[in-house]
Amino acid sequence: MTGTGTAVFLIVFFAPALSKVLTSIAFRNRAAGRAEIIRAKRDGRTPRRRRPGKRGRRG
Questions:
Q1: Dist CA 37 CA 26 (whole Å)
Q2: pTM (2 d.p.)
Q3: For 4-13, what is each residue's pLDDT tens digit?
């Protein structure tokens, strides 16, 4: 095999794994963007109160 043939073989061989990695990175970027938007929307409001636990307010 020539150098070009080897390079093409490696690209074809690792393409599915590379595609999954790129999809995962894109998902994380989208999730981070959504979280940033939610934080920005909530920034002007008062902080959220914690809900009472299993036993209610008195603990």
A1: 17
A2: 0.52
A3: 999 999 989 9
